[in-house]
Amino acid sequence: MNLRFSDMLNSARIAMRRAALVAPAALLAMTLAATPAMAAEGEPAILYDGATNELTVNGAYDGSQGPDLFTSFKGLVPGDRITQEIPLEFSNISAGTRLFIQADTSQLSDDAIAALNNMTLTVSFEGDGAFESVPVDAPQEVFAGQDPVHVATFNEPSQATMKLTLYIDPWKAGNELAELGEVTIPWVIQIQEDDGDSDDNEGPISTALTPHASDLVAYEGGMGTDASGDSVGNALPDPEWVNADWDSARVTVANQVWDESNPYWSQGTDGLPFRWAYGSTATDPVTASARVGEYHLMVYPLVDANGEPLVVTVNGKLLVLGDATTETPDGSGFVVTTTDGSDTMVQVREVTDNTAADALATSHFKNVYGEVTAGQALNRALSDAFGGIVTTAFAAPGDSLQSALDGQFTASGTHAGDCDSTVAHAHVAAGTTFVKNGNLDMPVNDDARIGLLWDDFIAGVLGEPEREGVLDDKARAAVGGAFATGEGVQRRFKYLDLVDMNDGNLWVSTADQSSVTIFVPYFEGISAEDTIAVAYFDGLTRDYTLALGQADLDAEITGTTAHAVKVTKAADGIFFEVPWAEFGPFELMWIDADTGEGPGDDTGQQPGDTGQQPGGDTGNIADDQTDKPHGQLVQTGDYTLMIAGGIAVLALVAIVVGVVLARRKREQ
Question: What was the pLDDT predicted at 332?
């Protein structure tokens, strides 16, 4: 009997998310009656390597037949009870792997089948694995059915022994057994392995896996991937792996389950079955704080004592780390590719002060709050009641933090406690969560610390006076009214964004696509009595510091669209809402109450929506939200909660207001 190899090693697709591997036909060659057993060499065994999807059946060979798994079933006579032990070795297994056996009795004569009916075959197991209960019956009844018989399942590297016991009933079997001579039954061994990544029933995606990761965009500074103690490390974010969930993946390394007991565990980066790093080139790992630029994501294999790469499987697939065209010169690793075939890159945008970026100084990174406290609600209620001229006497300033990472944070990464009304900050609705780079499929890390990047324009880039003039013209036209003429208008530019300070200042957005409320305190030269407006410019990010030439940047500025946002005055400053993922350059404008043409009421009239798709890092664009009620800071109930406590201080507030008004008149 010749060996029958299947051509299904890499292409088999069957239902139930299984890949079928069919082994060579193993022979049950029973020499019945007194025919002498044939001498042969070779130990019976069934071997499967999950890393290569290779199934091997070992056994004795007679030169013309296939591997004989059943060397003990020879020279049998009625009354014999013989057990054949077959070792099973399943290596590099990281997904549910099932063993099936099927006997082919289709070529047997009626006399041979009648002879087999006088026998029973029992299957048992010893060792690791989940073993099925196989019925005791005649061999052709147990294994010769239309479907293969499932006998065992292995979920991790395992060794076991399958025992087949053949019994010939002396009361049923007679001399007809001797007359049959040799009966040969081909057995087909099958392996079916779960596919850990497939979301359908069409079988595995591939027989191998190469890590893929998403491109990311961050700002300079922040706590990087290798930060420790007071060091920011490389100031680069964690990679975002996209084709394997490493928190739930079943992994083996060197034929052992991948966990802290694995001898190679310490080699992996962050518990992954490989090492990774960022490089300014494909071979130069970044160890100091990364400055503006682009950085490659590189992966290196784990190696044994001889420096040879170890075999790694992930959900039943072999982990393949690149090829000769992507390996580093020393052969130790390669650049990870994205799903579109390009290198995975982290793009780092500039911050005006590198020292402040590395230190996460409060001059450049402000707090983001996820709750409205009672003190904030009272401050807002009194502000509305008295025309927005309540002093800071009724707002308890928080401590002035030297680092934006100081203080308490909530589980979602926002700052806890009362906000400080003397410094700029941001608010989101309670419980708001965040995603990386505006991608709703990439939630931030569990230890996220969300901050508001609060930076000036870069001198010579957006900060060039002529370019600021172009932006100012667009902003005043968008706001309209008294600002359209430009007479008496004063301005201040800022660059704003939300970042995860604990993940390399990776830019983030709200996961529910809600807007973010920014608070700006009044500063010298501006007060609640002035006419105030805010505008933002879509499509302008700091990417121009990487690749755009001066002429291209001028074209971007000329083509940008300015949008006015609604401004709400409070006791100590103004609030304005930034639509989802619309951060970037902003312009604050005001007209002094003594020189302006209009009253000091809230401005922020809404321009018509141009429908233009913003560019840069805005992600998917939500509907215009600038004219919706400002409900994220104070709910209706917050006002009523403060009424009882607020009445007692209204008289005092009125006195304070009077004092403030008198002081302003004297100053004028």
Answer: 61
Quick one: average pLDDT of 12-33?
37
Shared domain for 324 and 383, answered yes or no, is: no
Compute the average pLDDT of residues 422-431.
Answer: 93
Query: What is the number of domains present in the chain?
Result: 3
Q: Give yes or no for a contact between 426 and 452, defined as CB atoms under 8 angstroms apart.
A: yes
* Helix orientation angle between 374-385 and 636-667, rounded to the nearest 10 degrees: 60
Q: Name the residue with higher pLDDT: 241 or 106.
A: 241
The structure tokens listed for 512 are 């529910």
SS (H, E, C) 606-627: CCCCCCCCCCCCCCCCCCCCCC
163 and 23 in a common domain: yes
Q: Does residue 36 sit in the same domain as residue 122?
A: yes
The span from the CA of 378 to the CA of 364, in Å, is 28
601, 606, 424: which is closest to 530 by C-alpha?
601
> How far from 489 is each of 190, 458, 469, CA to CA, in Å?
80, 22, 12
Strands 81-91 and 45-49 come out as parallel
Q: For the chain, give the percent of residues with pLDDT over 90.
A: 35
Q: Are residues 182 and 239 in the same domain?
A: no
Q: What is the pTM of this model?
A: 0.69
Instruction: Of 153, 157, 36, give the one whose Cα is nearest residue 92.
Output: 157
Contact between 17 and 317 under an 8 Å Cβ cutoff? The reply is: no
Task: Tell me: pLDDT of 367 over 90.
Answer: yes
Beta bridge partners of 160: 88, 127
- For residue 54, give its domain range: 18-194
* 121 in any annotated domain: yes
Same domain for 343 and 377? Answer: no
Q: Which domain-ending residue is among 347, 382, 406?
A: 347
Q: Is residue 546 part of a domain?
A: yes
Q: 515 and 226 in contact (C-beta within 8 Å)?
A: no
DSSP state of 599: -
Q: Do 366 and 239 have their domain in common?
A: no
**Which of 134, 161, 194 corresponds to the end of one domain?**
194
Residue 447: C-alpha distances to residues 218, 239, 413, 490, 592 (Å): 17, 15, 7, 41, 44
Mean pLDDT over all residues of the chain? Answer: 74
User: In 124-231, which residue ranges form alpha helices assigned H by DSSP?
Assistant: 139-143, 176-180
Residue 606 is encoded by which pair of tokens? 């809404």
Q: Would you say residue 443 lies in a domain?
A: yes
Helix axes 550-559, 465-479, angle to 10 degrees: 10
Residues listed for the chain: 668
Tell me the per-residue pLDDT of 301-348, one tens digit each, with 9 for 90 and over.
898 998 888 889 888 888 888 654 566 656 667 888 887 888 899 999
pLDDT for the residue 140: 63
The verdict on 244 and 145 lying in the same domain is no
DSSP assignments along 535-588, one per residue: EEETT--GGGGTS--HHHHHHHHHH--EEEE-EEE-SSEEEEEEPTT--EEEEE
Lowest mean pLDDT among 25-29, 277-281, 306-310: 25-29
CA distance 118 to 178: 13
Element housing 377 (H / E) = helix 374-385
Percent share of the chain, pLDDT over 70: 69
Would you say residue 630 lies in a domain?
no
pLDDT at 486 over 80: yes
pLDDT higher than threshold 60 for residue 24 = no
Say whether both 320 and 460 belong to one domain: no
